[in-house]
Specification:
alpha/beta; 28% strand; 3 domains; 9 helices; 18% helix; Rossmann fold; 24 strands; OB fold (Dihydrolipoamide Acetyltransferase, E2P)
C-alpha cells in the first residue's frame, strides 16, 4: 500500500451519522394549509411513498398516511396540505392487510420514536415493498423499465445496530476550564442510579429523534426500550451514569469482538472529567470533528467477510455489521472487477470496499478527506501493495490526478525509458458519497480519467432520481440497481447502482 501526500484534508467526515430517521424528499415550496379542523374521511391505500407511508387518493389529492399498508382501508384525519399532497393520520383501521403484525416496541407509532416506521408489517412484506418503492420512485422520475433487482434481505430483523447516536437534551456548553471543577450541585450524588432514572432530576438526558406527525409534535423522545439496537448496547444505555454537561450527542458503539465504546460529541473543547466502572472506551469528538481519546481504545474493530477492519471514533462505518457483507458483495458483483482494472474508490472512509476490491484488480486508488479515517485505511489496507491512499477532498485529488505526471504502477520497467502514461487510465470507480452526492466537477474528472463504469452506493434511495439525472448528463446510463436492506423495521433501503458509458 502506498500513502500519497496529504491534499489539503478537511476535518469534516464525508458521511453523516448512520442514524437518519424520517427523511423526506425535497418538495417544492408551497403554502401549507392546516386541515386539522376538517372532518375525517374513508380512504383506500393503493400505493407506498418514497419514505414508506401508505398513499391513496381523495378528492383529487394524494393522501399520505403513516403506518398503513397498500390494500388497507382506513378512516383518516387530514392534518396538513401542501400542493396536491395531504398528510393525514389514521383514526381507525377499517380493512387490515394480511401483512399487518403487532409492533413489538412501546415507542412505535404516531408522534413517537422516529427510528422505526415499519414495525406494523411482516418482514417479508417489508422487503417486497422496498422493491416496489424503488421501482415507483424511478418510474415517477421518467426512468422507463427501471433495472431494479430483487432486494437482498437482512440476516437479522432485530438487534442489528452496532452503534446508535443519542441526542443530549438539557446540556449546556462549558468554559474550557469548567470540566476540571468539582461538581457541588445538590444532584452530584445520585446513589449510583442509572442515567435513565436520574435524567429528569438533572435536567439532561439522552433522547432519540421523534416523529413530527402533527405541527405540535416535539422533536425528541426519551426511550425505555429499543429493539433494533444490539441488546448489549441497550444494556449499556440502561447502566449509564455520567455527567452530560457540554455534550451534544452520545454514541453507543460495539465492535464485533464485544468491546464497547462511548463516543461523545462536545459543544466546546472542554474535556469532561470522567470516571467509569464500566468496561468501555470513551472518546470525545471536538467541535472541529477531531477525536480525542479519553479512556481505553480509540477505535472499534469489526469483522466483515472474515476480515477485521478498524474504525476510529468519528470515522464512518455502517452500523448493521451482519448485513454489511451483502452490500460489499453487491458492489463487487456490479463492479465486475478484472485483473487489469485500475479502480478509484471515492469517499472511501476506512477502506471497506477497497479491502475487497484490491485482491481482484491491478490497482486501487482510494480518496478520503477525514484524517482519522485515512489512518484507519492505512491499517486496514496495509497488506496490499496495489492500493494508493490519497488524503484530501475528492474534487481536489481528482484534479491533481489529471494534472500530475503519474507513473502507471505497472509500467514496463524493461523499456528503459522514464516516459509513462500521464495520467494513468482508470477503468472503474466506486462512489460512496455523503447525502450531498458527488459534484459535477468530479464526474467530469472521472470521464477525463477514462472511467467507463461507476458503482454508486447510497443509503438514501429517495435521492436516486437526482443522481440518475446527474450521471446521465455526464454520459453515464443507469444499468442496474441492487437494493440491499440494512435497516429492517424501517422504510430505509440502501442501493448499489451500476452506471456505464
Amino acid at each position: 500500500m502506498t500513502r500519497k501526500p496529504e491534499r489539503k484534508p478537511s476535518h469534516k467526515p464525508t458521511h453523516e451519522p448512520a442514524n437518519r430517521p424520517n427523511h423526506r424528499p425535497d418538495k417544492p415550496a408551497a403554502p401549507t394549509r392546516d386541515l386539522r379542523r376538517d372532518p375525517p374521511f374513508e380512504i383506500a391505500i393503493d400505493d407506498i411513498t418514497a419514505v414508506g407511508e401508505g398513499e391513496g387518493e381523495f378528492k383529487r389529492a394524494r393522501v399520505q398516511i403513516p403506518f398503513t399498508i397498500p390494500g388497507e382501508r382506513v378512516l383518516a384525519q387530514p392534518i396538513t396540505q401542501r400542493g396536491e399532497f395531504v398528510h393525514a393520520l389514521g383514526v381507525r383501521l377499517l380493512d387490515a392487510s394480511a401483512d399487518r403484525v403487532y409492533p413489538v416496541c412501546a415507542h412505535f407509532g404516531m408522534s413517537k420514536c422516529a427510528h422505526c416506521d415499519w414495525q406494523h408489517m411482516d418482514y417479508a412484506a417489508q422487503v417486497a415493498l422496498k422493491q416496489d418503492m424503488l421501482i415507483t420512485l424511478l418510474e415517477r422520475a421518467r426512468i422507463a423499465n427501471p433495472p431494479v433487482r430483487p432486494v437482498i434481505a437482512a440476516p437479522l430483523q432485530w438487534g442489528y445496530n452496532h452503534h446508535m447516536t443519542f441526542t443530549v437534551v438539557g446540556s449546556t456548553p462549558l468554559e474550557p476550564d469548567a470540566a476540571d471543577q468539582p461538581n457541588d450541585s445538590p444532584d452530584a450524588d445520585d446513589d449510583d442510579k442509572p442515567l435513565s432514572e436520574i435524567a429528569v432530576e438533572n435536567d439532561a438526558y439522552l433522547a432519540f429523534p421523534a416523529r413530527r406527525d402533527t405541527p405540535d409534535d416535539r422533536d425528541l423522545i426519551r426511550i425505555r426500550e429499543c429493539h433494533i439496537l444490539h441488546p448489549d448496547l441497550f444494556s449499556l444505555y440502561q447502566q449509564l451514569d455520567m455527567d452530560l454537561s457540554n455534550l451534544r450527542r452520545v454514541r453507543l458503539q460495539q465492535g464485533s469482538d464485544g468491546d464497547q465504546m462511548l463516543v461523545l460529541t462536545a459543544f466546546t473543547d472542554a474535556a469532561p472529567a470522567l470516571e467509569t466502572d464500566l468496561p468501555v472506551s470513551i472518546n470525545l469528538i471536538l467541535p472541529d470533528n477531531e477525536p480525542l481519546n479519553l479512556i481505553g481504545e480509540s477505535h472499534s474493530r469489526f469483522e466483515v467477510n472474515k476480515r477485521i477492519l478498524r474504525a476510529t471514533a468519528g470515522s464512518f462505518f455502517r452500523p448493521n455489521i451482519s448485513a454489511l457483507p451483502n452490500l460489499i458483495d453487491s458492489v463487487i458483483t456490479l463492479l465486475d472487477p478484472q485483473p487489469d482494472d485500475a479502480v478509484l474508490d471515492l469517499f472511501a472512509g476506512v477502506g471497506v470496499f477497497s479491502a475487497f476490491i484490491a485482491p481482484r484488480v491491478r490497482v486501487v486508488s482510494m480518496i478520503e478527506s477525514y484524517p482519522p479515517a485515512v489512518t484507519d485505511a492505512d491499517d486496514n489496507l496495509a497488506d496490499f501493495e496495489n492500493v494508493d491512499v490519497y488524503e484530501g477532498g475528492v474534487d481536489t485529488v481528482l484534479e491533481d490526478l489529471l494534472e500530475a505526471d503519474i507513473t502507471d504502477p505497472d509500467a514496463d520497467e524493461e523499456s528503459g525509458t522514464d516516459e509513462s502514461p500521464a495520467p494513468p487510465r482508470y477503468t472503474a470507480a466506486v462512489i460512496d458519497p455523503p447525502h450531498t452526492g458527488i459534484s459535477d466537477a468530479a464526474l467530469k474528472s472521472l470521464v477525463a480519467l477514462g472511467v467507463d463504469r461507476i458503482v454508486l452506493v447510497s443509503d438514501e434511495a429517495h435521492r436516486l432520481p437526482r443522481d440518475v439525472a446527474q450521471f446521465k448528463k455526464a454520459g453515464y446510463a443507469l444499468t442496474a440497481v441492487q437494493p440491499v436492506d440494512l435497516a429492517p423495521q424501517t422504510a430505509h433501503i440502501a442501493t448499489v447502482c451500476l452506471f456505464t458509458r
